Amino acid sequence: MQLKQVARDALLKPLQAVAGIVERRHTLPILANVLLEQKNSQLHITATDLEMQITAVAELAGKDGQSTTVGARKLQELLRALPDDATVNVDASGSRMTVRAGRSRFNLQTLAAADYPRISLGQEQLQTLSLPQKHLRSLIKLAEFAMAQQDIRYYLNGMLLVIDKTSLQAVATDGHRLSWASMAVTGDYARQEVILPRKTVLELSKLLADVDDPVTLDILANQVRFRFGSVELVSKVVDGKFPDYNRVIPSGHAKQLELQRSELLQALQRAAILSNEKFRGVRLVLGTDQLKIICTNSEQEEAEEELEVAYKGEPLDIGFNITYLLDVLHNLTADRVLLALGDANSSALVTMPERSDYKYVVMPMRI
Fold first, then answer.
1. For residue 304, which phi and psi values (nearest 5 degrees)?
2. Which residues pair with 23 in a beta bridge?
3. I need a labelling partner for 260 at 20 to 30 A (CA). Which of 16, 104, 199, 297 fits?
């Protein structure tokens, strides 16, 4: 295959869009490669890890029907290392690809395109939804940080997407905290739940832009497909039963505090410096018109922060993992947050004033 006088960025950008899912360690050597195909006078670049597949289309004309596969990381690093305004010539034949730019020449090994594994798209399309990219991006960002990482309950290592009538919801939990976000969508959809794998969520979060351009979400029998800009992402879904998140979200907590988000975040960040590195515990001590934030560690060091709050109720001393509180405060954009507390053994609920589209639950810990 041949590409002549191509601007470096015209090849690098679509390559960067797909190369993030290429595994460094893999059982099949070809999975370290990207598939390059010329069709419809465009260059299609595809990467897969067998669970997910991303294709990016570049407006680079060439002879239709040509294809090859080449090491994703090496090609990406070579292009990155070239000057920004470089012009590139690519020539692939046999088991070699030559990349030329100015006086530089690189010979890369290729593997046959016919051997490249592809995810075949399920035929049965269940529902299709279209919404602005920035809305889906912000929805994912509000939930993704609460996903588990390597839990044996594999379905927790992902994010639940729920389409229900006129709403799209994202839910993630690691068993110690839960993040639920919802947004309105145009249309009326039958209720449907899919669990996206962790890697798919993180990749989407990177690729979606903060723009009004649409993203189309297709739900298939055991796959989901996202199409936006010049990118198509197809992912298998996690087969499992997600916990009933509605049962976890507390209601009726009497102790309600409205706090300035940045003030609370900064106080927790300072206190966290002296928290126990292993347990990451923080005590919230609530009294009349004040909230104390206390962290101690095994060296008997202590941090104490005091915030003014409008509170006249019963006193409370409750412990949490400070990382879980910092995570939610980092990811919310509202100026103020509501903290609802029960007793020392009850979960806390973090929401935003006058908004019912976000809820964050964090379990208490004994300190």
1. -135, 125
2. none
3. 297
pLDDT value for 284: 98
> In 3D, which of 23, 3, 114 has the Cα closest to residue 68?
114
CA distances from 42 to 5, 32, 60, 232, 324 (A): 15, 23, 5, 15, 46
**CA 119 to CA 52: how far, in whole Å?**
8
* Token reading at 271: 């206190």
Amino acid at 298: S
Regions of the chain where pLDDT drops below 70: none
* pLDDT (0 to 100) of residue 23: 85
By three-state DSSP, how is residue 320 classified? strand
Residue 313, pLDDT score: 94
pLDDT of 138: 96
Q: What angle do CA 54, 58, 64 make, to 5 degrees?
A: 100
Taking the C-alpha atoms of residue 94 and residue 92, their distance in angstroms, rounded to an integer, is: 7
Q: 326 and 346 in contact (C-beta within 8 Å)?
A: no
**DSSP string spanning 144-200?**
HTTS-SS-SSGGGSEEEEEEEEEEEEEEEE-SSEEEEEEEEEEEEEEEEEEEEEHHH
How far apart CA 273 and CA 268 sit, in angstroms, is 9
Residue 36, classed as helix, strand or coil, is: strand
pLDDT of 122: 85
Tell me the pLDDT tens digit for each residue of 355-365. 999 999 999 99
